C-alpha cells in the first residue's frame, strides 16, 4: 500500500460529482444503496480495466481535485452511501464557515483504495500498529460518520474503532463525530423525551466483540490493540470518552440552538434544559447541570408558580446535584422545598411524597445527621406501606435506607434487621436472580462485615456476585463494586494478597466500563492503597492513593468530601512511613475541605481532628494534640453520640495524651470495647534503638518470676500488634489474665495498658496464611503477629483464647 494512498484525499467537488454520477446511473435505487453496493456497482466497473483506485482515474482526469488529505473519513460499509456523502458535504460546509473557506480533501477508502484487490492482505503488523496511526496523524482530522445514533454501526466494527482510537491517541489530531441532519433531529427529540437513551450509547463500545468483513483485517487490528494500544480496555475507554464528550456537546447544543432561535423563555426550552441537566448530572457535570436546572426553574416559576409540579421536580433535581457535589446543606434546602410543594399538592400520603422523604433522608445522612435521616426514612416507610403495601420494591428500598442509616450510626444489629427485611421483600417481589436482590445481599454483607463477622459477610457477597455476574455480566460496574466489597472483607481478615487480587479484578472492570477518570475507579485505587499500606508497602500504597486523588480532583473537584477522604488516606500512609510533615499536610487539607463542604459538626470532620491530634502526639506536641483530640471528641459526641465507637476512641486517646489514663480493673463491657485501640507509640529513635529497647524489655521479662499457667492455658509472651490506624506492627507484652481479659502493654513487668474482655470476643482465628492471629470484637478486629522473642506460636494463643471463651459459655 503506497504512502500516497494514506496522505492524499479528494475534494468536495469530486464528492459532488460522484454523487451526481450515482444518481444518474441508479436513479431509482441510489437512496437505498449501501457503500458496499456503490463499490460493486459503480466503482469496481469503472476501475476494473485499469486495476486501480478510483482516485487514480480522478487524478488523470481532474488533478486539481486530488491533494493532501485534511480529513480521514471513518464509516461503516453497511451505511447507505447517500447518507455518507451527505454527511461529508454537510461537514465541508461547516468547515468552510469555520476555517475561512480552507479547502477540504477527504481520505475516503471507497475512492483511495484499489477496490479490485485486497490491499491489506500482505501488509506487515508494523503497518497496522505504526504506519496507519502515523498516517492519520499526518492528516490531522478524523471524521466519524455516526448512524443510527441509537445503535451506531461503527461502534461494532473493528476498522472503525481502530480508526477512532488512532485519531484520539494522536496528540493534535482532531476527532469529529457527525450525524446526518435527519439523525440530528432524532437525537434532539430523544434528549427531550428520554435522556437515558443518549447515555446508553456509551456502554455499547466493546472492541473485543467488534467484527470486520475481512477476518485477516480483524486479526491484525486485534493484534495491534493488544500489543500496542494497551489492550481492549484502553481502546474501549478512549472511544467512550470521545462519545461522552459528543453526547454532552449535542445535549448542550440542542439548548443553544433553541436559545439562538429566541425560544429561551418557552416551556419547551424549560423542559429541554431540565433534560439536559439530567444528562450532565449523569456524567458528573454537576455545576453545569445546576445551571441548566436553574434556567428551567426560572421559566417554570413564571409559568406555573411556586407550587407547580415541574417546580417541585426541579427542586428535587437541584437537591440531587448539590448532594453529589457534597454540598449537603444546599441539597437539604432544595429537598425541603420539593417536599413542601409535594405535600401541599399531592398530600402527605402519596408515593411521590415518600420518594422526596427518601431523598431528604439521604441528604441528612450525607450530612452526618443520622437521626434526622432515620426520621425521614421512617416517614417514607409509613407512606409506602400504607399506599403500596409491605411487599413492594419501594418499601424494600426504604428498609435498605434505614439499614444504611443505622449502619452509619454504628448500630449494626438494627442495620441487619432492616437489611433482612429489605432482602425478604426484594426476593419475593423481584426474585432471587435480580440485581436488586444482589444489592440487598450487599447491604446485609456490609453490616456483618462491620461486626467483624467476615465469613458471614463473604457468603452474602458471593451470593450477590453470582447474581450480578448472571444478570448484569462480568463486565459491569455493579459487579466491580461487589468484587470491591469482597476485597474489603478479605482485607479485614488480614488476607491482603487475596484482597488485592479482588481489587484488581474490580479495577479492570471499572476502568473498562466507566473509564480511568471516574470516581469509582478512584475508590478502587483507594482500596488497593489500603491493602498495600497494611502490608507495610507504603510507597506502593502512596502511588495508588495519588492516582485516586488525581482522578477525584479532576472529576469531583478539590473541594469535595470524597477528595478529602483520599487526602486522609495519604496522610495515614505518610504517617506510617514516619513522614509526619507530609502526613499533617494531607490531613489538614482533608480537614479544610470537610469543614467547607460538610461543616464543622460532621463525623468526618471529627475524624480529621482525631488524625491530626494523633500526628501532633507522634511529634511530641502534646498541647496541639490535646486541642485537636478535644475538638474530635466534642464533634463526635454531638453528631454520633457518646456511645459510638469513634467517640469512645477520641475520649480514650485524649486521656492517654494527657497522661491521665488508668487501668479500669477489668470492668469494661462489650459496649465500651471500642476503647481497646492503638497501643502507645514507640519511643522515637533509630531502628537500632528500638531493637535495644525490645531487648531490654525481654531481659526484664527473663528476670521476672515465672508465671503459672491456669488449666485454661493462661499465656504470656511477646507478640506484635498492628495499630488501628494501619500503623506498623509494634512489640507488646500480651497475657491472658485471670479476670477474663487478653491484656497487652509496652513492657512485661508493667501493668497492662490495654485489656480486651474475652466475653466480648466474637472469634479468634488464624489468618493471612496462619501468619496472623485475628481477634474479632464488635466494631473492630485486633491483629497480632509473632515477635522474634516469642516462645509460643500463634496457634497456641488461638487455642488458649478459644478455650477460655468456650469455658465461659
TrEMBL record:
<dbReference type="Pfam" id="PF00169">
    <property type="entry name" value="PH"/>
</dbReference>
<dbReference type="InterPro" id="IPR011990">
    <property type="entry name" value="TPR-like_helical_dom_sf"/>
</dbReference>
<keyword id="KW-0802">TPR repeat</keyword>
<feature type="domain" description="PH">
    <location>
        <begin position="712"/>
        <end position="806"/>
    </location>
</feature>
<dbReference type="InterPro" id="IPR001849">
    <property type="entry name" value="PH_domain"/>
</dbReference>
<dbReference type="InterPro" id="IPR011993">
    <property type="entry name" value="PH-like_dom_sf"/>
</dbReference>
<dbReference type="InterPro" id="IPR019734">
    <property type="entry name" value="TPR_rpt"/>
</dbReference>
<keyword id="KW-0677">Repeat</keyword>
<dbReference type="Pfam" id="PF13424">
    <property type="entry name" value="TPR_12"/>
</dbReference>
<feature type="repeat" description="TPR">
    <location>
        <begin position="396"/>
        <end position="429"/>
    </location>
</feature>
<feature type="compositionally biased region" description="Low complexity">
    <location>
        <begin position="683"/>
        <end position="699"/>
    </location>
</feature>
<feature type="repeat" description="TPR">
    <location>
        <begin position="354"/>
        <end position="387"/>
    </location>
</feature>
<feature type="compositionally biased region" description="Basic and acidic residues">
    <location>
        <begin position="643"/>
        <end position="660"/>
    </location>
</feature>
<protein>
    <submittedName>
        <fullName>Tetratricopeptide protein</fullName>
    </submittedName>
</protein>
<feature type="region of interest" description="Disordered">
    <location>
        <begin position="637"/>
        <end position="721"/>
    </location>
</feature>
<feature type="repeat" description="TPR">
    <location>
        <begin position="312"/>
        <end position="345"/>
    </location>
</feature>
<feature type="repeat" description="TPR">
    <location>
        <begin position="480"/>
        <end position="513"/>
    </location>
</feature>
<feature type="repeat" description="TPR">
    <location>
        <begin position="564"/>
        <end position="597"/>
    </location>
</feature>
<dbReference type="Pfam" id="PF13374">
    <property type="entry name" value="TPR_10"/>
</dbReference>
<feature type="repeat" description="TPR">
    <location>
        <begin position="522"/>
        <end position="555"/>
    </location>
</feature>
<feature type="repeat" description="TPR">
    <location>
        <begin position="438"/>
        <end position="471"/>
    </location>
</feature>
